[in-house]
Structures are given as C-alpha cells and as structure tokens.
Amino acid sequence: MLEKEEIFSKVLRAGRRTYFFDVRATKADDYYITITESKKFTEEDGSFHFKKHKIYLYKEDFAAFTEILGEMTSYVLNHKGEEVISERHQKDFKKEYATERVSTEDSVSSISNFTDIDFDDI
C-alpha cells in the first residue's frame, strides 16, 4: 500500500550499499521523506540477501535535519578531506607489500651468495 503513495524517488548506488530517497504521501495527503539503506550480503554458497534500514523524515524536522547534516558533512570533509581512507589504506598496503617483496627478494638473492655445504663433507 505504501508503494502506491510514492511521489518522487532518487537512488544512490554506492558499492554494496544502495540508498533510496523517496517522497511519500500520508493518508492526509501530506508529504514526508524516507531514506532507505540497502546493503547486500553474500553467503559462502554464493546466495545473497539484503539488509535494509529506513529513516522517516517529516516536514517539521527538515530544517534542523538539513542544518545538522550539513554541519556533520562539512566537519568530516574539513578534518579528513574527500579522499576515502579505506582506498588510501589499500594503496599504502600495496606499496608496503611491494616494498616488503623487493626487500625479501634482495634477502633471498644475498642468501644465494653463500656457499652450499654438503654435510657429508664434514
């Protein structure tokens, strides 16, 4: 029944998460917004399911919600920038792994400079 009351919708796909922003109508024909986060979970056997979380936002809360959301997003961007930390971490990990691999290969090549001794000779 609620699906019939949907007025306007937008979708934001973000990796395993999808956000649905919907304007809906009440029985009294007033409008409110629902924000739904849907996250895909894959099981070991390849099957999957979605977990959904929903927020209902009513007109009387729009101004305060918008103000606080703006403050919070500005705070995060001002303190951490727009770069996604997990992506930076992955880049750093790849660099660190490549460096470790090179130093390990150097160690292996320096080990090969040793004389091979057969214990039967002793």
Q: What does this 3D model show about the protein?
A:
This is DNA-binding protein. Belongs to the PUR DNA-binding protein family. InterPro entries: PUR-bd_fam. With 122 residues, the protein is of the alpha+beta class. The protein has a domain at 2-61: Nuclear Transport Factor 2, Chain: A (Roll). 38% of the residues lie in helices and 34% in strands. The chain has 2 helices and 4 strands. A 4-stranded antiparallel beta sheet has the order 1-2-3-4, with no helix packed on it. Strand 3 (31-42) and strand 4 form a beta hairpin. The radius of gyration is 28 Å and the shape is flat. The termini are far apart. The mean pLDDT is 81.
- CATH names the topology of the domain at 2-61 as Nuclear Transport Factor 2, Chain: A
% residues in beta strands: 25-35%
In the CATH hierarchy, what is the architecture of the domain at 2-61 at level 2?
A: Roll
What's the arrangement of strands in the largest beta sheet? Answer: 1-2-3-4
Could you list some keywords that capture this structure?
122 residues; alpha+beta; Nuclear Transport Factor 2, Chain: A
Give a short overview.
The protein is α+β, with helices and mostly antiparallel strands. The chain has helices spanning 62-80, 85-111; strands spanning 6-14, 17-25, 31-42, 48-58.
